[in-house]
Amino acid sequence: MRLFVSIDPPSQIRKQLAAWIPDNSGIKKTAPRNMHLTLLFLGEQSREKSHIICESLQKVRFRSFQMTVQEIGAFPDKRSPAVVWAGAEGTPELFNLQKKIENQLSLFTEPDLRPFRPHITLARVKNPARVTGEDIFSASPAPLSFNVSGFSLKNSVLESSGAVHRVLKKFP
């Protein structure tokens, strides 16, 4: 099972985020139902380990907080975008939650040497020749805020149409 831990924005926020990306044949938009902010990617795990991971995640405690998504960016950068994302404000509460989850699940994953960059993937650029920076980055969307009171353990299943993310368990 290919597992990850995420924050899932409310459906209304996901619909608004989808509207941030223009229709363009060179861009494959993320389906709103798949939009999430990854807190920790666990990779391939056995079904037995997934049960232990669930038990470990039940120990994570935090206070709910507001998350604001406020900008459009890209990996590796805006000049040659491969992945287009909505950046989340890096609040202490968000970083604290991510670190608690990472510490709780340290036995199940290798340490990630890259810093945590909170974002929600909005699209992947499939044909760079058909996409310009103006197509994606000229808009200045209004910030979107929502309450974070939980997180999910999800399984990513690769299908012919793309990845489908299924919630295995919500916490709390």
TrEMBL record:
InterPro entries, sorted: Cyclic_Pdiesterase, Phosphoesterase_HXTX, RNA_CPDase
GO molecular function, one term: RNA 2',3'-cyclic 3'-phosphodiesterase activity
Catalysis: reaction(s): a 3'-end 2',3'-cyclophospho-ribonucleotide-RNA + H2O = a 3'-end 2'-phospho-ribonucleotide-RNA + H(+)
Ranges spanned by the short sequence motif HXTX 1, renumbered to the chain: 36-39
Active site residues of this protein: H36 (proton donor), H119 (proton acceptor)
Transmembrane segments: none
Segments carrying motif HXTX 2: 119-122
Entry annotated with the keyword Hydrolase: yes
Domain Phosphoesterase HXTX: 7-85, 90-163
Superkingdom: Bacteria
UniProt keywords, alphabetically: Hydrolase
Root EC class: hydrolase
Enzyme Commission code: 3.1.4.58
Keyword Transport: no
Family statement: Belongs to the 2H phosphoesterase superfamily. ThpR family.
Function: Hydrolyzes RNA 2',3'-cyclic phosphodiester to an RNA 2'-phosphomonoester.
Protein known as: RNA 2',3'-cyclic phosphodiesterase
Gene that specifies this protein: thpR
